[in-house]
Write a structure and sequence with these properties.
35 helices; alpha/beta; 20 strands; elongated; five-stranded parallel beta sheet; 900 residues
Length: 900
């Protein structure tokens, strides 16, 4: 059978050989080595030759896998600075308290995880003692993405250095009293400690890459020099299965983000079992990261293995390590020396002879305990190599044992992720293993005690001295006191008040025009961060390319094809636009980094991310939840919004539900503006609340979601009168009455209140005229800019009533006394307007675009969903007929007249 991977003669023809004789000599040498020393020796020589070629910069495909051994040999490891014995005692206390905290909480049934931190303790402690820079260090310190399930270990360390006390630990996962500890890294719940929410797996690695990239963006744009900051992301090997975990690896290497290090805790276990039972996850990840251009450091084996590698004169040990699947490595962790001798060493005669030189204790030490991720010297060597490497990001693949030091009942057991407590006897065994001065009498009534050497103990002083030398406590989140950003000139907003006259303008275009004016502001213009996922031309933003530039760390190394055009494609090292390509996930990660810069770097930035509304909340709602947890601020803009406005695109582009999803996020202020002046008023209010002077009781840690439309329509002038801007922001105001619209209804005409949101208001206005001119019905039109905000205000009013406070919801105040029933119309599913139905005192009904979208003209799509002007007229007449205010026959007559 022909080897499909072999180079075929036709391929060789494409590679002319300038010296066939020399080539033949090389091939003969390889054949001779293979015959004399065997294929393993030949493979070894080829690998070393390829490594030398790669090291000399010879253009060859990269070597994607290396042997299953440490990248940094023992002889090349730097000395471990500081006091290793002291650090070992500190780590022991943290291991103990992390396990004690979760075990003590188990009596309340609140859960918790023990095994993850047990495996990763030295990965964190080495960093805290020697690498992780605090907020007082140069730049903004380092950014730490802590693995969510390791949070008990971070709390234990904060307890040791005095930032937490026993009361806090006893309220782990019990937050309702106000001083408990959240289960995982949640900045919104513990904003002085946690910076980055990471437990929604996959989002941490993605966000870390874009955070490192945003750090470069800030530096290159001259906003703040944060080149001394390093981003550390602590991840699990199982977590790397999430597509978001590896989605941006190429971006990180392409932009040379050597300010970024991934530390992947390779304990070979997912939540329920092995990560790669029949394969090797470390080798797979190495190939994946090397292929993407990362620097890879493997830290697999501890010092106990040094003797075994010295005895491996034939390479048999390295070959065996490479071929044993991960699930079998776990099995060795739980079996005796006799089993390991037979199953591991017994497969090769050379290994059988090696095993004869090893005691049972030595074998158990190697296979049960000695992993690179459990030894501070090995971890230190890897971290030092990572921060010193230039030109590419680094990933450290550190092998550990899940449940390490917790006892035989935990180590490498498939169920250990779900095991929430240790018995008293297990704690006593752990105490003896860690050599902690905890007495049996300290276990009062079977309750495990917390351990602390004392606030003035050598351990605590050492810990605090190390952190002081590195710039203060970590992790830590700090919002530096900064002056509110000055409000942009009123002219930018007021220009929309007069309307567009006879010109048709889509609200998407109105938003882009507003941004073009705001980025010119001398005070705040440079702080805008436009983010687009390769759709700028769709949204009419190409005019920003030459004026703002597209960010690229390399600048523009080519002559753009459209250089002679006014709106040419301009890239620049200090470019302001982040044009991410076709990645909503990457764009959201950009947005999160920019929106939290006020805390991470003490620099308030104003991101706006504009996207196809269908591809925002539907695809990346989890990241938007992450954004709310991280207390991000900025503007999300769902363009080409609505179920029926995007002509011809069809089901997968027709957004009829994003406001429903957005309504589930407490941090999202969701608006569906109908007119350009509403867009301006909402953006103006957002700038005030998030970046200026928030009103008493207002939370500035919110983000605004605006839906804007691509349908060019006349933009009316802002109505005169008091309270219009307040109504726009609160979610509802009366746009006109039948009388102010010049419709002159007859005396005692039936009256109805029509609520329209977004683009639907244009059909409502048409229906208002048809009702008056064809059916003698007076209709008042209201613009509902946010059904979600109206609902939230009403919920707050309900809660106030339960506290004995009298408060009337704004929607009831606004509609109080309005004559007739209410009919709400939306280009989204009816669930959107129906959010407020229970607080409306009038009879209520609604129309919306429920169901899947379809490809068609706007007019036919609206007729299909029953939301066009004619359908609004029929629905209004039906509502009035039920009240006896119009004849029932009018409804049938209208249906026939309009062909419904």
């Amino acid at each position: 059978m022909t080897d499909p991977n072999a180079i075929q003669p036709s391929e060789l023809d494409q590679l002319p050989d300038r010296d066939p004789e020399e080539t033949a000599e090389w091939q003969a040498s390889l054949d001779a080595v293979t015959k004399a020393a065997g294929p393993h020796r030949a493979a070894y020589l080829m690998r070393r030759t390829l490594e030398r070629a790669e090291g000399n910069g010879i253009a060859l495909p990269k070597l994607l896998e290396t042997d299953y051994v440490n990248t940094i040999p023992t002889a090349a490891e730097p000395d471990l600075p500081g006091d290793p014995a002291m650090e070992a005692r500190i780590t022991a206390w943290n291991r103990w308290n992390a396990a004690a905290m979760v075990t003590r909480g188990s009596k309340y049934g609140v859960g918790g995880h023990i095994a993850t931190f047990a495996s990763a303790a030295w990965l964190y402690e080495t960093g805290f003692n020697h690498f992780f820079k605090g907020k007082e260090a140069d730049g903004s310190g380092d950014q730490l993405y802590i693995q969510g399930h390791a949070s008990p270990g971070i709390y234990a360390r904060a307890f040791l250095d005095g930032r937490l006390d026993e009361h806090h630990l006893d309220h782990f996962r019990r937050e309702s009293g106000g001083d408990g500890l959240p289960s995982y890294p949640h900045p919104r719940r513990l904003p002085w400690l946690w910076e980055f929410p990471t437990v929604s797996m996959g989002l941490g690695p993605l966000s870390a890459i874009y955070q490192a990239r945003f750090n470069r963006y800030l530096t290159n744009r001259g906003i703040k020099d944060v080149s001394a900051s390093h981003v550390w992301a602590f991840l699990g090997d199982g977590e790397m299965d999430e597509p978001e975990s590896t989605a941006a690896l190429a971006l990180a290497s392409r932009e040379g983000l050597d300010n970024l290090t991934f530390v992947i805790n390779c304990n070979l276990q997912r939540l329920d079992g092995p990560v790669r039972a029949n394969f090797k996850i470390v080798q797979e990840l190495e190939a994946q990261f090397r292929g993407a251009g990362w620097n890879v450091i493997k830290t697999l084996w501890g010092n106990a293995w040094d003797e075994l590698f010295r005895l491996d004169t034939t390479g048999a040990l390295v070959r065996r390590l490479r071929e044993v699947p991960d699930a079998q490595v776990q099995t060795y962790q739980t079996r005796d020396a006799a089993y390991i001798r037979q199953d591991f060493f017994g497969k090769d005669p050379a290994l059988v002879e090696m095993a004869k030189l090893l005691s049972d204790d030595k074998i158990l030490e190697c296979f049960h305990f000695s992993r690179g991720g459990h030894e501070a010297r090995k971890v230190y060597a890897a971290y030092k190599a990572a921060v010193e490497f230039k030109g590419a990001p680094t990933v450290i693949l550190a092998q550990t044992v899940k449940g390490h030091t917790l006892g035989e009942g935990f180590a490498s057991k498939n169920a250990n992720h779900q095991m929430k407590k240790l018995s008293v006897d297990e704690f006593k065994n752990m105490r003896d293993l860690l050599e902690l001065p905890i007495k049996d009498s300290d276990f009062v009534e079977g309750v495990v005690p917390y351990g602390h050497p004392g606030a003035d103990s050598p351990e605590v002083r050492y810990l605090q001295e190390r952190r002081a030398a590195l710039g203060g406590p970590a992790p830590a989140r700090r919002v530096h006191p900064v002056a509110p950003l000055p409000a942009p000139a009123e002219k930018a907003f007021a220009s929309f008040d007069k309307g567009s006259g006879s010109q048709n303008v889509a609200t998407t275009m109105a938003f882009v025009r507003l941004i073009k004016d705001l980025v010119r502001d001398k005070e705040t213009g440079k702080r805008w961060v436009p983010i687009v996922p390769d759709e700028a031309r769709t949204f009419g933003m190409e005019s920003l390319f030459p004026s703002l530039g597209i960010y690229s760390p390399k600048g523009q190394t080519y002559e753009p094809v459209d250089r002679d055009q006014l709106m040419y494609y301009k890239e620049a090292k200090n470019g302001q636009i982040l044009n991410e390509g076709i990645t909503e996930a990457g764009s959201m990660a950009d947005f999160i980094a920019a929106s939290t810069s006020y805390a991470t770097h003490g620099e308030a930035m104003i991101p706006f991310y504009i996207f196809y509304s269908m591809f925002g909340w539907q695809r990346t709602a989890d990241q938007m939840w992450q954004l709310g947890d991280q207390l991000g601020r900025g503007f999300l803009v769902g363009a080409t919004a609505g179920r029926t406005t995007l002509t011809g695109e069809g089901l997968q582009h027709a957004d009829g539900h994003s406001p429903v999803i957005a309504a589930t996020n407490p941090a999202a202020l969701t608006y569906d503006p109908a007119f350009a002046y509403e867009v301006a008023a909402i953006v103006k209010d957002g700038l005030r609340r998030m970046y200026g002077e928030a009103a008493p009781g207002e939370d500035p840690n919110v983000f605004y979601y605006l839906t804007v439309y691509n349908e060019p329509l006349p933009q009316p002038a802002k109505p005169s009168g008091l309270g219009i801007d307040e109504g726009i922001v609160k979610g509802l105001y009366r746009f006109n009455t039948a009388e102010s619209a010049g419709l002159s209804p007859v005396a005692n005409a039936p009256r109805i209140q029509l609520l329209g949101s977004g683009t639907a208001i244009h059909w409502v206005l048409k229906a208002q005229r048809m009702l008056a001119e064809e059916w003698g019905v007076a209709a008042d039109v209201w613009s509902a800019t946010s059904f979600t905000e109206l609902r939230r205000d009403a919920l707050d009013a309900d809660a106030a009533l339960l506290r004995g406070e009298e408060r009337v919801p704004y929607v009831r105040q606004a509609l109080h006394g309005a004559e007739g029933p209410v009919l709400a119309v939306s280009d989204y599913m009816r669930q959107v307007p129906d959010q407020i139905a229970q607080w409306v005192e009038q009879d209520w009904s609604s129309l919306g675009a429920d169901g899947f979208g379809l490809s068609d003209t706007r007019e036919d799509a609206r007729r299909h969903f029953g939301v066009d002007a004619e359908s609004v007229v029929v629905a209004a007449l039906a509502q009035l007929a039920r009240r006896g205010e119009v004849k029932a026959t009018a409804v049938k007559e209208a249906r026939e007249k309009y062909g419904l």
